[in-house]
Design a protein that fits this description.
With 229 residues, the chain is an all-alpha fold. Helix content is 40%, strand content 2%. It has seven helices and two strands; from the N terminus they run H-H-H-H-H-H-H-E-E. The structure holds 2-acetamido-2-deoxy-beta-D-glucopyranose (3 copies). This is Cathepsin S.
Length: 229
C-alpha cells in the first residue's frame, strides 16, 4: 500500500496539476481536518487526489440535481485519500467461526406495515461517528444497535460507548483495535448488565485497559452505566 501511495504522490508531483483557484478551499479543508504532511511533495500529491475527489463529488451532485441519482455526496476528512487506500484500511469485522447463525423464533404480527420507514425521522439514530485508524467498526455497530433499542424501550436517545466495548469485550473473543464482532460486544453488555455512555467513557481510538465509571454522568443514573431495560 505504501508503494502505491508513493506512486500516487510522485505522479501527483510530476503532473503538479492543481488549480490555484482552489488554494483557499484546500487550505480550509487542510486546517479543518488538521492534516499533517511529512513533505511538501506529499502535500502536493494529497492536494491532487483531493481535487479529483472534489470533482467526482461535484459531478455526482450535478447528476443528482438532474434526477440521475437519489443521493448527494459531500467532502469529508478522507478527501485526500484514494479509494484504494480507504478500501485497503482495516474495518475490523471478524466473524467468529463458532457464530450461532440460527434464526430467531418467527413472531406473527398482524398489522399493516408502512411503505417506508426512516429511523432518523423516528429519532432512533445519533450522529455519524469516526472510528479513526482503529479497526473498531464492530464496536460502533454494536453500540449503535443498542442505542436504538434503548431509545425504543426507555425513550432516551444516548450515545453509548464504543470504547467501553473495545476495552472490555476481549474476554468474549474480540480483539480491540485488531477487530471483533458485535455478538462479542453484546455478550459483554449482557454480563455487565449495561454499557457506559460515550460521555463517561469517551472514544480514544486505541485499545486500552478495561475500566468502568470513569466519571459519573450527572443527571439521573446512580452509576455511570446505562442499564439496558
Ligand atoms: C496544511 O497543514 C499542514 C499542517 O498543519 C501545514 O504544514 C501546511 O502548510 C498546510 N497547507 C496549507 C496549504 O495550508
Ligand atoms: C489518508 O491520508 C492521510 C494523509 O492526509 C494519511 O496520513 C492516511 O494514512 C491516509 N489514510 C489511509 C487509510 O491510507
Ligand atoms: C388480521 O386483522 C384483521 C383486522 O384486525 C382481521 O380481519 C384478520 O382476520 C386478521 N388476520 C389474521 C391472519 O389473523
Amino acid at each position: 500500500m505504501f508503494r502505491s501511495l508513493i506512486f500516487t504522490i510522485l505522479c501527483g508531483f510530476a503532473a503538479a496539476d492543481t488549480s490555484s483557484e482552489m488554494d483557499q478551499h484546500w487550505e480550509l479543508w487542510n486546517q479543518t481536518h488538521n492534516k499533517v504532511y511529512f513533505h511538501q511533495i506529499e502535500e502536493l500529491g494529497r492536494r491532487q487526489i483531493w481535487e479529483e475527489n472534489l470533482e467526482m463529488i461535484n459531478v455526482h451532485n450535478l447528476e443528482t440535481s438532474l434526477g440521475l441519482h437519489t443521493y448527494k455526496l459531500g467532502m469529508n476528512h478522507l478527501g485526500g485519500n484514494t479509494t484504494e487506500e480507504i478500501a485497503g484500511s482495516p474495518t475490523g469485522t471478524i466473524v467468529p467461526s463458532d457464530l450461532d447463525r440460527n434464526p430467531s423464533d418467527f413472531i406473527w404480527v398482524n398489522t399493516s406495515l408502512p411503505d417506508s420507514l426512516d429511523w432518523m425521522d423516528a429519532d432512533l439514530v445519533i450522529e455519524v461517528k469516526k472510528q479513526g485508524g482503529c479497526a473498531s467498526c464492530w464496536a460502533f455497530s454494536a453500540a449503535r444497535a443498542l442505542e436504538g433499542q434503548l431509545k425504543k424501550s426507555a425513550g432516551t436517545l444516548r450515545s453509548l460507548s464504543a470504547q467501553n466495548l473495545l476495552d472490555c469485550s476481549p474476554k468474549y473473543g474480540s480483539n480491540g483495535c485488531k477487530g471483533g464482532f458485535m455478538t462479542q460486544a453484546f455478550h459483554y453488555v449482557i454480563e455487565n448488565q449495561g454499557i457506559d455512555s460515550d460521555y463517561s467513557y469517551p472514544y480514544t481510538g486505541k485499545s486500552m485497559d478495561c475500566h468502568k465509571c470513569a466519571s459519573p454522568i450527572p443527571l439521573m443514573q446512580k452509576t455511570c452505566e446505562v442499564q439496558l431495560v
